[in-house]
Amino acid sequence: MPILTGIFGRLRRCFNDFEVSGENCMINNDSPAIIEQYKRSLAEYTIDQLRYKSEEDVWSIGQMYIHVIDVAEEYIGHIHTCTIAAQEEHGDKTEDGTKAFLEKAWPDVRVKLEEPVNRTRNPDSKDEIIAGLEQVLKKLKYWEEHVRGANPACKVRHGWFGWLNAREWFEMIGMHSRHHLRQKARLDQKLAEAGL
Question: How far does Cα 109 stand from its chain's mean position?
Fold first, then answer.
């Protein structure tokens, strides 16, 4: 019973700040709030829980956190590129990209990365994850103020969603991070099944 209480408590807190609609976790494109939610829920895990892998080719919760941080940093880099670009880009979003932005949600599909799963490393400590999340939050706070002035015609191409401008890359951080809340719920279930 304590195991079930723990897993349901984690799930309830995970979705506490979100309006849940089907499989999608929706808020009003508030990327900083999503990252803050990840930071708050981190307190519920030990380092052993964060590093636990139920199978060799399945990420640990810690690896998922590292991935969310790494992708946020990558997208922040694209925001910067858009804001300093001198040349306008007239390419558009793909059909999937247009749909994702209309729904303000990443498609509800499991994405298999081409890289080996172990390339996204397991964290050495919770402090490492906290520092990464805080760095992302600091940059998001800066760009929240500055992204509005970016030329919407200056874009960087996303491999799946097509050409995105600075504002859209900012939104993508929240959309991508929300997408991984579904994965986080599955990994929490694996922890419960393992008695951790």
Answer: 14
Domain total of the chain: 1
The alpha-helical segments, DSSP class H, found in 15-156 are 31-42, 47-51, 61-84, 95-103, 126-146
Helix (H, G, I), strand (E, B) or coil at 19: strand
Give this prediction's pTM. 0.82
CATH classification at residue 26: 1.20.120.450
What gap in Å lies between CA 77 and CA 110, rounded to an integer? Answer: 25
Residue type, 67: H
pLDDT digits (tens, 9 = 90+) for 70-113: 999 999 999 999 999 999 999 999 999 999 999 988 887 766 65
Residues in the chain: 196
Q: DSSP string of 142-168? A: HHHHHGGGS-TT-EEEETTTEEEEHHH
Tell me which residue range forms the domain holding 14: 2-193
152 vs 189: CA distance, rounded Å = 41
Residue 25 vs residues 62, 117, 185: alpha-carbon distances, Å = 21, 25, 12
**3-state secondary structure at position 114:** coil
